[in-house]
Design a protein that fits this description.
326 residues, binds iron/sulfur cluster, 32% helix, binds S-adenosylmethionine, twelve-stranded mixed β-sheet, alpha/beta, single chain
Length: 326
């Protein structure tokens, strides 16, 4: 799959549900209206879609959400997609909030998953409960340990939030060093309406990096994964620090990905509404129709996102990250 700018799409992120057992303040509104079940792709439809992507050259699939591990049957889906590893697919990964890892880690490993991203914005129980509106830090930390013991490589994702965790980022990095987890910091993006004012919470990562450099030697790494992160080696901790800076840097030239919402709508870009809807094509049209719609998506895939944060920031798109799949 090649878009009109010559970018080759080898990576697909699939949201398997828009539901979640947490309500992170920058991600969701407190009361979210979730989609009726019939609008969501069945597990069989998602597996069939994954096969179409793999046939078209996709090498890496990430299951995300919402919280992917709250979707009933997610391990069966992971096994179905995981069975394609080595037969077109290189890797199946998962992004999770960690609340259910204790019960799912071994099953994910058995399905062929070897790496997971776990979102964790604070190591302080009260702050974690505040950011997630009620999450239990101890359970998440336990789940992370179970995952590591099950053989899953864990990467931690932390959204940098002014006034919430800005004084804690060095501590989170040190904790990752102790656990041998890589850490990726993310700037908050204006996606969907939430109660919080994102302008107040926006924390540019270049300042975070300068502060960390007073404590750690950060060596810029040449490693690029086709993704948006820039990496630094933190030699004294033996881990890698990634920074995703959608607002201070635009990283779209090397974009290799598209995103499937739980409804089967596929988006060419996180920050635009350009999309095609594959659900009816999957249900009634068949693979040829799906292929034609994907061609249409690729032809119109936007060149770059255009996130801005400032006075009176409005969301770049109305949909929340939990719809598109972060
Ligand atoms: N529930 C899973 C989790 O939290 O990892 C997977 C889905 S979540 C939408 C994926 C990632 O998106 C998380 O790391 C989360 O912190 C991030 N995220 C959500 N909304 C965001 C926003 N507005 N700006 C930046 N990152 C966001
Ligand atoms: Fe749920 Fe993940 Fe969004 Fe938090 S970031 S509300 S865990 S989907």
């Amino acid at each position: 799959m090649v878009d009109s700018f010559g970018r080759i799409i080898t990576y697909v992120r699939i949201s398997v549900t828009d539901r979640c057992d947490l309500r992170c303040r920058y991600c969701m509104a407190e009361r979210m209206q979730f989609l009726p079940r019939r609008e969501i792709l069945t597990l069989e439809e998602i597996a069939a879609l994954a096969d179409i992507f793999i046939a078209r050259g996709v090498r890496k699939i990430r299951l995300t959400g919402g919280e992917p591990l709250v979707r009933r049957g997610v391990l069966e889906l992971a096994s179905a997609i995981g069975s394609r590893i080595g037969a077109g697919l290189d890797e199946l990964t998962v992004t999770t909030n960690g609340t259910r890892l204790e019960h799912f880690a071994a099953g994910l490993y058995a399905a062929g998953v070897r790496r997971i991203n776990v979102s964790l914005d604070s190591l302080r129980a009260d702050r974690f409960a505040h950011v997630t509106r009620g999450g239990d830090l101890a359970g998440v930390l336990h789940g992370i340990d179970v995952a590591a013991q099950a053989g899953l490589a864990v990467k931690i994702n932390t959204v940098a939030l002014a006034g919430i965790n800005d004084d804690e980022i060095a501590a989170i990095l040190r904790w990752c060093g102790q656990k041998s987890f890589d850490l990726t910091l993310i700037e908050t993006m204006p996606l969907g309406e939430v109660e919080e004012d994102r302008t107040d919470r926006y924390l540019p990562l270049d300042g975070v990096r300068r502060a960390l450099e007073e404590e750690f030697a950060l060596t810029p790494s040449l490693r690029r994964t086709g993704g948006p992160a820039r990496y630094y080696e933190v030699a004294e901790l033996g881990v890698r620090l990634g920074m995703i800076t959608p607002l201070t840097n635009n990283f779209c030239d090397g974009c290799n990905r598209i995103r499937v919402a739980a409804t089967g709508t596929v988006y060419g870009c996180l920050g635009h509404d350009q999309k095609v809807d594959l659900r009816d094509a999957l249900r009634e049209g068949g693979p040829a129709q799906v292929d034609a719609l994907l061609d249409q998506l690729l032809a119109g895939k936007p060149r770059r996102h255009d996130f801005r944060i400032g006075p009176a920031t409005v969301p770049a798109v109305a949909r929340h990250m939990s719809v598109t799949g972060g």
